[in-house]
Write a structure and sequence with these properties.
The structure is a single chain. The chain is α/β, with parallel strands linked by helices. It is built from eleven helices and 18 strands. It has three domains: about 170 residues, HAD superfamily/HAD-like (Rossmann fold), CATH 3.40.50.1000; about 70 residues, Hypothetical Protein Ta0175, Chain: A, domain 2; about 140 residues, Nuclear Transport Factor 2, Chain: A, CATH 3.10.450.50. An eight-stranded mixed sheet has the order 5-4-3-2-1-10-11-12, sandwiched between helices. A six-stranded mixed sheet has the order 14-13-18-17-16-15. It has a four-stranded antiparallel sheet with strand order 6-7-9-8, covered by helices on one side. The longest helix is centred in the middle third of the chain and has 17 residues. The two termini are about 25 Å apart. The relative contact order is 0.12. It binds alpha-D-glucopyranose and magnesium ion. The site of alpha-D-glucopyranose (GLC) has 11 residues, from strand 9.
């Protein structure tokens, strides 16, 4: 929460399955387009929040399979749990808030009386979320009777039906919308109300998000009928909510443009990044562009031209060094020559690079230290480096940078088991 000094320029609160993540897009292209846009233009002054029906465990599983960026906040189990930052610190106070008129044992006792309710897996069940599958033609009747019975027992619950199959029983104060309202209150108390908020969703459990009055909203083109119908009945005339014409991540980008919330042209949609606007880039944007070029070079999607190689060399200081994760150190100019021989080695392959968590800190009047994770995926194989990069501004070309030094380290989860990693 404290990563930004002031108010976020944009706070995106997005559902994951079938909103940020398109399970029908094996190359994850729309997600990669969103990622490039976010890291190039928004990471440094905006907030990314994921709000999912999944439990934290199941969310982590999804992250291992899909190229998801690291969010600032993650809201899991349909707004019943909130965790902050990269180390995912749980908000225990939020959990306590949800205890009011909630008794999990009573809920399971009452729901067990309905043979139509098929319990979901153990991992989907949480202290403040009891979840089932139920056929669409039975859902309305079951929900009506169940909510009466729970009310009679003195409970205050919320029933949410999603994707024509999932029924969640939650404390009344829970849900994705309430969790967001709680976060916005916290920002307000800190004097850091986000300038713009955009909520994004596709199914029943997202409806709640669209009830936040100060937020813009996008229902992606592939939104489920239940959400579209709910919107038709409740918020039809709200001009700040759109049904995108594009699917998933592309629909989110579309909404950023439609509501003029900031840049909405993903660097991935620019064919020739060297010819594109090169004025006033922030240093993070430069890194996004570099790796896009690198990916296209290796996939032979840019021609093998000496001019490109010269362009690259012109942004690296002649004595700049690159320390490869293996520990081998070379001059950057030499690395560029080596890279030039790899033109097309990944041609026709599902080979993508994305950068995550870009941050840059000024360490002098014209020098910045950048840090980022560089992810590389080739088919099923995935690997990640933690990179640090030192750049200085080119005196005669504002918004352009000279690369001075880069060092990369493999990020290997098994190493985290080593007890000495916390010390120098
Ligand atoms: C996710 C959760 C599931 C929940 C559904 C709808 O799929 O895993 O437990 O019922 O979202 O909220
Ligand atoms: Mg969804």
């Amino acid at each position: 929460m404290d990563r930004l000094n002031g108010s976020a320029r944009l706070m995106i609160v997005s559902d994951l399955d079938c909103t940020m993540v398109d399970h029908d897009d094996p190359g994850n292209l729309s997600l990669l387009r969103f990622n490039a846009l976010w890291e190039a233009y928004y990471r440094h002054d905006s907030l990314l929040v994921f709000s999912t029906g999944r439990s934290l465990t199941s969310y982590k599983r999804l992250r291992r399979r899909k190229p998801l960026l690291t969010p600032d906040i993650v809201i899991t189990s349909v707004g019943t749990e909130i965790a902050y930052g990269e180390s995912m610190v749980t908000d225990n106070f939020w959990k306590e808030c949800l205890e009011h008129k909630w008794d999990r044992d009573m809920v399971t006792e009452e729901t067990a009386k309905f043979p139509e309710l098929i319990p979901q897996s153990e991992t989907a069940q949480r202290p403040r979320k009891v979840s089932f599958f139920v056929e669409p033609d039975k859902a309305v009747a079951v929900m009506e009777v169940l909510s009466e019975r729970l009310e009679k027992r003195g409970l205050n619950v919320k029933l949410i039906y999603s994707s024509g199959t999932a029924l969640d029983v939650l404390p009344e104060g829970a849900g994705k919308g309430q969790a967001l309202a709680y976060l916005l209150e916290k920002f307000k108390a800190d004097g850091k109300i986000p300038i713009n908020v955009l909520v994004c969703g596709d199914s029943g459990n997202d409806a709640d998000l669209f009830t936040i009055p100060e937020a813009y909203g996008v229902m992606v083109s592939n939104a489920k009928e239940e959400l579209l119908q709910w919107h038709e009945e409740n918020l039809k005339d709200n001009p700040n909510i759109i049904h995108a014409t594009e699917r998933c991540g592309a629909g989110i980008i579309e909404a950023i443009g439609k509501f003029s919330l900031g840049p909405s042209l993903s660097p991935r949609d620019i064919t020739d990044i060297w010819k594109s606007e090169r004025e006033n880039l922030n240093p993070g944007h430069e890194v996004v562009n570099f790796y896009l070029f690198y990916e296209r070079w290796r996939r032979a999607e840019v021609e093998k031209s000496e001019q490109y190689i010269q362009n690259l060399k012109s942004v690296c200081h002649p004595s700049a060094a690159f320390v490869h994760p293996s520990g081998i150190e070379r001059h950057m100019h030499q690395c560029i020559d080596i890279m030039s021989t790899f033109h097309g080695d990944k041609q026709g392959k599902q080979y993508y690079i994305w950068v995550d968590r870009i941050s840059s800190a000024p360490i002098g009047s014209d020098t910045w230290l950048l840090k980022f994770d560089k992810w590389e995926i080739c088919g099923e194989e995935r690997r990640c480096c933690l990179a640090t990069l030192l750049v200085s501004s080119m005196g005669n070309s504002p918004g352009r940078f000279t690369w001075l030094h880069m060092q990369q380290t493999w990020l290997d989860c098994s190493i985290a088991e080593d007890q000495t990693t916390g010390i120098f």
